[in-house]
Amino acid sequence: MTEAVIISTARTPIGRARKGSLVSLDAFDLAEVVVPAVLERSGVPARDVDSLVLAEAYQGGGVIARNIAVRLGLDDIAGVATNQHCAGGLSAVAIAAGSVRAGMDKVVIAGGTESLSNSAMTTTRKGADGQPVTWVSASHPESPEAPAFDMSITVGENTARELGLTRLDVDEWAVYSHAQAIASIDGGYFTEQIVPVPVPQPDGSTRLFDTDEFPRRGTTVEGLAQLRLLHPELPNPTVTAGNAAGLNDAAAAVTVASDEYAEAHGLRPLARIRSWASVGVAPALTGLGPSLAIPKALDRAGLTLADIDLFEVNEAFCSVPVATIRKLGIRPEIVNINGSGASLGHPIAATGARMVVTMVAELRRRGNALGVVSMCAGGGMGAAMVIEAL
Ligand SMILES: CC(C)(COP(=O)(O)OP(=O)(O)OC[C@H]1O[C@@H](n2cnc3c(N)ncnc32)[C@H](O)[C@@H]1OP(=O)(O)O)[C@@H](O)C(=O)NCCC(=O)NCCS
Hints:
By secondary structure, the protein is α+β, with helices and mostly antiparallel strands. Helix content is 32%, strand content 23%. The protein has helices at residues 27-42, 64-71, 88-101, 151-163, 167-186, 221-225, 259-264, 289-301, 319-328, 348-366; strands at 4-11, 15-16, 51-55, 78-82, 107-115, 122-126, 131-135, 197-200, 206-209, 248-258, 271-280, 310-313, 370-377, 381-389. Strands 1, 2, 3, 4, 5, 10, 11, 12, 13 and 14 form a ten-stranded mixed sheet that branches. Strands 6-7 form a two-stranded antiparallel sheet. The protein has a two-stranded antiparallel sheet with strand order 8-9. Strand 13 (370-377) and strand 14 form a beta hairpin. The longest helix has 20 residues, at 167-186. The chain is globular and about 60 Å long. Bound molecules: coenzyme A. Coenzyme A (COA) binds next to helix 4 and helix 6. Residues 119-148 are annotated as: Disordered. InterPro entries: Thiolase, Thiolase-like, Thiolase_AS, Thiolase_C, Thiolase_N.
């Protein structure tokens, strides 16, 4: 059977939305940096790329991938925009892998791009006179137990309550996540993944932004305990800015090719995409998505939890990885060893691809074989992918 292999990866550093280094660039600008970098790193001539699949979540619904292909002068490359909310960047990679494994496309660039600094404000027509009013497309219907636009309840608090997690449980995880992210930055583990972003400055010069800026040095449980609860009115509330994912800007992509293409062109694959899976859950249980998606993806690969060396479970809120660990019985010390959403940041549509990029590099750095990336996704979903380093 044809295998889907990853032959190159790239990501921007992750910026802090509205307050950080990438506020002057939009999702198109970020993709315009990452796509040529991942193409160049692949060694594949542009004429051999069949398609560019890019996830977007808040950019207004156009075919962002096609826009980027044309911007880059790659008119012959078709573009597909996908949206699976927090899982969009992962489903873009899955779509690429599926097409390659089916023997259709030979090479696909796939990833996601997000600028929460510059997300689109949409309007819709309401009433008999069709007056425009501000509108955001909701991924699930509004309900008191699962507000469509307040994930701190729908994901953060509901997940903690479901598993009986305390604020200390999630704050301790946040401290761990920041420490892991900072150790990875200081160790230079992200350097080869990152493509620096030239950011125009007000004085006309350009600054190269090359390091993730969201992790906070010196994050402590005592410090986090001082932060304001987002929902103090709820019983046993847990969520603060310190244990939630950030609002962030970034893009990430990988080049997926068939193993036959890679071999025929003398390209050395970095990893094989073994399997992937998505699940739906009741929106109020969104945070439990990874605990269902991971076993489903493992089953498809003919693997068990015990086979996996490393996991990244996105910290949409820190209750999500803690809940996943407890539900599945995973060893915490092999989870989020480079940090995740609460520390590195969660640029929604880019996150899934960023996780694949990071997992490929970390498996190879450690000489490990198998990794799983997983996240919950707005609307009541979970997604997971099994990656094997080569
Ligand atoms: C939780 C949320 C509302 C906080 O927004 P915010 O107030 O802009 O958050 P900030 O990151 O600026 O943090 C606010 C303050 O908390 C404190 N803080 C945050 N993290 C901290 C840490 N690790 N240590 C110490 N203090 C911290 C700081 O005082 C910070 O202010 P400062 O940056 O001026 O020092 C926002 O991050 C959010 O909506 N997150 C969830 C995103 C989401 O839903 N994603 C989808 C998931 S399904």
